[in-house]
Design brief:
mainly alpha
Length: 110
C-alpha cells in the first residue's frame, strides 16, 4: 500500500512508474478483469452486460485513478526523454479511452 501512495504522490522513480505500474500493472489489471469476467459470464450468462460494464469501469479506474496519475506526477519530478515518453503514453491512453467510449464499435478499424 505504501508503494501506491508513493506512486500517487509522484515520488516513485519514473522508470518504475512507467514500466512497472502503467505498462505491467495495466496489463495485469486487464488480464485479471477479463479472466474474472469470463468466469462470471460462464457461470451466470444473464449478467453479461453488467460484467462488461464492471470490467470497463474497474480497468479504466485502475489505469487512470492510480497508474496514469502517478506516472504523470513522477514525470513532473524528473527531466529527460523518458518524461516525454511517459506523458505521451498517458495522453495516448486517455485518447484510447475516449475513442473506445464514444466511437461506435462498428466503425473501429480493429
Amino acid at each position: 500500500m505504501r508503494s501506491f501512495k508513493a506512486l500517487l504522490s509522484g515520488s516513485q522513480p519514473l522508470s518504475k512508474a512507467l514500466g512497472w505500474y502503467l505498462i505491467l500493472g495495466g496489463f495485469l489489471a486487464l488480464t485479471a478483469s477479463s479472466v474474472i469476467g469470463l468466469i462470471v459470464i460462464a457461470a451466470f450468462p444473464g449478467v453479461r452486460i453488467g460484467v462488461y460494464f464492471a470490467e470497463f469501469a474497474v480497468f479504466w479506474a485502475c489505469i487512470f485513478g492510480q497508474f496514469s496519475i502517478g506516472t504523470w506526477r513522477s514525470a513532473n519530478q524528473t527531466k529527460g526523454r523518458l518524461t516525454i515518453v511517459a506523458k505521451a503514453a498517458v495522453v495516448l491512453l486517455a485518447a484510447l479511452f475516449l475513442l473506445n467510449f464514444f466511437w461506435p464499435t462498428e466503425l473501429l478499424p480493429w
